């Protein structure tokens, strides 16, 4: 295991793949939305969305409880949040975050499963936040200066998300139907 970030163990995708090849199957959970998982995921991963994560229940139902549980997301941030939830539940020494997430896994040329393309949660947040900011500015110029408060509110939310690494808008969007496994509204062709 390569490093620890705020007492969370981490491992590179290449190291994890090597372990899976030399020691056999690993337990890897992907904490992104079901739609993101459906688009692309590391082949050994199974979907356990962060907004539905039950650290105690998951740890109690493992087939190999003595083996590490590896956590992956898009780029590492949500994986770290999931590891922190496991640590808060008393399982911190049993979970390992995959550095760089699925992006690093794919860039490393490691095996992935591909499905239907979707707009990532991160892009959805940028689209909605940007749209609300523009709307606030336009309404502030045309209707009433009070509407600029809408832009300020979104700006404050983005600062909060940046400082705390917790995004209420992202957590809400993750629960939307188009971000679930059966959702089709956020698909794109690229």
From TrEMBL:
Matching Pfam families: Rhodanese (PF00581), YgaP-like_TM (PF11127)
Residues annotated as transmembrane: 127-147, 153-174
Tree of life domain: Bacteria
Annotated Rhodanese domain residues: 22-114
Native source species: Paludisphaera mucosa
Entry keyword annotation includes Transmembrane: yes
Protein name per the record: Rhodanese-like domain-containing protein
Gene3D superfamilies the record matches: 6.10.140.1340, Rhodanese-like domain
Keywords for the protein's UniProt record, in alphabetical order: Membrane, Transmembrane, Transmembrane helix
Alphabetical list of CDD domains matching this protein: RHOD
């Amino acid at each position: 295991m390569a490093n620890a970030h705020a007492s969370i163990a981490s491992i590179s995708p290449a190291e994890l793949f090597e372990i899976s090849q030399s020691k056999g199957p690993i337990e890897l959970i992907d904490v992104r939305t079901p739609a993101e998982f459906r688009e692309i995921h590391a082949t050994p991963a199974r979907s356990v969305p962060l907004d539905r994560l039950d650290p105690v229940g998951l740890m109690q139902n493992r087939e190999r409880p003595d083996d590490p549980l590896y956590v992956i997301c898009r780029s590492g941030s949500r994986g770290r949040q999931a590891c922190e939830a496991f640590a808060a539940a008393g399982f911190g020494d049993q979970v390992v975050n995959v550095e760089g997430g699925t992006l690093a896994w794919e860039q490393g040329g490691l095996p992935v499963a591909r499905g239907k393309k979707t707009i990532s949660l991160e892009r959805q947040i940028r689209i909605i936040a940007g749209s609300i900011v523009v709307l606030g500015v336009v309404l502030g110029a045309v209707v009433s200066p009070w509407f600029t408060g809408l832009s300020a509110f979104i700006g404050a939310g983005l600062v909060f998300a940046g400082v705390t690494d917790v995004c209420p808008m992202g957590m809400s969007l993750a629960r939307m139907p188009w971000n679930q496994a059966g959702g089709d509204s956020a698909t794109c062709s690229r």
